[in-house]
Amino acid sequence: MTKRLPGVTASTATPHLLLPTTGHNLDVRDPQPLLEQTLIEWGGKHDLWVFGYASLIWRPDFEFTERHLAQVHGWHRSLQMWSHINRGSPECPGLVFALLSGGSCLGVVFRVPRRKAHDTLVRLWGREMPGGVYDPRWLNCVTEIGTVKALAFTLSRQSRSFTGSLSDAQYRRVFSHSEGCYGTTLDYARQTYDCLLQHGIADVALRRVLKLAE
Predict the structure, then answer these.
(1) What angle do CA 203, 205, 210 make, to 5 degrees?
(2) What phi, psi does 64 have (nearest 5°)?
């Protein structure tokens, strides 16, 4: 079941944390070919839909004419992506959300008018794809107005940015010590959780992880 939403225009020493087993550097891919391919797939003949599952919900940073609750099948939101700049550092990596294969995800889709779609995609690439870490995909999003195909930023489990399974102790250490140029992992996770609740989305897995910080 989906629900319609109103449209708007929109230093102290820290302990060592476990790094990804393949090294702490993020995947580096040239994002430009991915942008060009996405622009081709969009085609420029219709409005653009974008699926948000974490910070894009509470800080989209682009104008849109509609937004709706949406459900995606075959993918789920998870706090399992390393962050070495935004929410952590190379010495003390933090975490950000990723859309991983399997399960389902409730989020929000935004409708961007065709005349603004090209510039919006360029801006999204600057924000989400500076190192080409995500895999952009067009996913079927089920909403109250029907199914729309929206752009989503997914993460491969083969990516070096994917954490794999994390223990409760690892989450506690990240929540206690990881901070980057945009703030702490804990604040980011809490802000996402609170925003999801405001939209009527209860993320049980995220609630369990956040309890580890108490």
Answers:
(1) 95
(2) -145, 160
